[in-house]
Write a structure and sequence with these properties.
alpha+beta, Herpes Virus-1, Cathepsin B, Chain A, 5-stranded antiparallel β-sheet, 25 helices, 26 strands, Papain-like_cys_pep_sf
Length: 800
Amino acid sequence: MEELLKHLPKIKIPGPNNKIYKDECVFSFDTLLSPSGLYVSLTSFLGFGVDHVLKYFECTGNAVFLHIKAIKHEVKVDKSEDGPDKKITRLAIGTPGGFNPDAQKYIYEEQYQIVILPDYTTYSYPNDDLPQKVKDSVQAILEAESALKIAEKEALSNTWDGEARSITKHIDLPQLNNGKKIPPSGWKCEKCDLTTNLWLNLTDGSILCGRKFYDGTGGNDHAVAHFQNTGYPLTVKLGTIARDGKADIYSYDEDDMVEDPNLAAHLAHWGINFDHMEKTEKSMIELELELNQKFGEWIAMQEGTNKLTPIYGPGYTGLINLGNSCYMNSVMQMCFIIPDFIERFVNKAEDIFRQNINDPANDFSVQMAKLGLGLLSGKYSQQPKSKVDADDSQGISPRMFKNLIRRGHPGFMSNRQQDAQEFILHLINILDRNSQGQTNPADCFKFKVEERYQCSSGKVKYTYRPEYLLPLTIPMDMVINKEEVDAYEAEKNKSEEGKAKLDPNHVVRPRIKLSSCLETLAKVETVEQFYSSALNDKTTATKITRLASFPDFLLIHLKKFTVKEDWTPVKLDVAIEMPDLLDLKLLRGYGLQPSEELLPETTSAPLPVVYDQALLSQLAEIGFPIEACKRALYFTENRGLEPATQWLMEHISDPEFTLPFVPPGMDAKTDSSDFVPNQEALEMVMSMGFTKEQSTKALKATNNNLERAADWVYSHIAELDTLEMEVDAQPAKPQYKDGNDKYKLVGFISHMGTSTMVGHYVCHLLKDSQWIIFNDEKVYLSEKPRKELGYVYLYQRLDK
């Protein structure tokens, strides 16, 4: 015990505020189930796999660890014994009541030792001879909840998936006295023959079927259509009403699952008594779980009847889906085929780990390096050698990375499905903030957009802005198989009337060439209300959009999500013919030409921009971003709420929709003295303990975006600590990579579902001249990659 006693002063007993990483290595994806187990420091309470524990000791001198190893044993189940299946109550994995498909197949036996480095001297545990301080430290570690589970619970709080729903605003819901009484059973949709997935409208007592699920099952959307026609918002799913007072309640105008404290009274109005009800249908949470479990087979069907072949080894590691994180998994798989990401994080991983040895779980570079190594090493993608191994989930669980990258973002903090395109921009934003003084790997995506304006004076103006994705509108008037689509739709309508079913493997979608999308981007646009410095007045101008640079890797975003005329969101179910080789010469911008004359620099104050403040407030209350509202009022000349709203709906997918508004023809203000912080946002940032000057700088750096400013201040602490109110230095001009305008398709992310908030994402990547499909933890050789059904595409620039 002498060796242990000399390290006793550095051993600590964790308290309630200490974070304990005892589930997974902070530098790798080794866990308790790994062959070498996990080493938890009795000083810092960080956990390490065998590949990193010695390096940690060398950097810190912390020598004493609790070694935890879990042994998996198969449970022999007596199938002759009948018993109720355990009720699935939550989507969370690893939390009390959480869903664990292996729970009845295996048990896990944990074994403990005290280990002292560097010689790996071991002592058994429990052991009465151990010093009391060591025993107290170990006991506290074993009894404490792990940092990862605490973070997961925090993320689940107040989210739909965590069953913590907000109280509806329709507590005092008006209900019609139309004489309707709802029987306790025997329900059927009033618009079709469906007898499942039925929703009772609490205003008028209508019973109608719900939305169609993303696998094609579910309802026929009659309940949502009823809301659109009547405005009656609150519904309850029949079959989920139980005598304990619980039920699935959905509010259409709040667009969320909610709680209704007055549900008993609202149901009693229609003759429904809680005491006489039994739950007979699966809740929405249970249905989502069930549908998610079918994805492996569903993905296989997307590529025909061929049985997909799993593939293992370096670069073929899957990512386990952590509560609707398939959007994140697909994006990160795509990033780590790019040399810039590999060089920045994987090749320099050891340096990154050593520089951030004390707080690795909260360092973005560490978690990026950990993820990259996990995906590319092959350590966590090995062909199973036995039946027990085959039952184990392949792939890695990116819990630390997910907890870190979504921190502070209300959308990504939830366990709801999110948009992969928005996540790409979120990731790029974080990369930019964490690359001060270092190469930003996201620069491989960055390109310069050139916009050329020519007003009625004949003179021109060029503006430039950086972009990371090329958004393409889908021109539905350029379908190349219209006759085939019309015939299919007629047959589909005929089959629905006759209750027959079409072959689900034979779907005819409108087909459009990518070249048509590119031509739509390149066409000449007419711009109203253009301020001409030559005329010192508003006039009409033409606008042409081109690319002034071509990045190493081009991300193309097909704008499949749009809105109908009634403002309801819709996803375009189209097939875009994406070429393997892409020539973008059509989009090359060349800047000012010898025959062109620039509009003069503004010497007098431009025309004042006046917004009707009452209309601006009304539009903002509807939910539109304030900068988009300014755009709408400018281009509709403050004519009223309806014209402005119509303009907003027509332009909601414009790439600059939410950016700070600068009227066309006018120059954006660049003088730092012109910046005025939003007073409410300023006070919020100052309430975090920052000075007025520091808070102002944060808001200026994030265009008065409170959410981003709160994140910005914590990633620029050193800069803010030395801040003086000097005049800001002129910012460096952005640098752009440029080269050939010819590209090769190397990856694409596909979305299956009716909106970005439901469904599933998968990623296809071209590796070693063959297409691979990454469906969360499952990685297969792709037999028939459906390139035409993608959502975000990755093209690599060719050298020649």
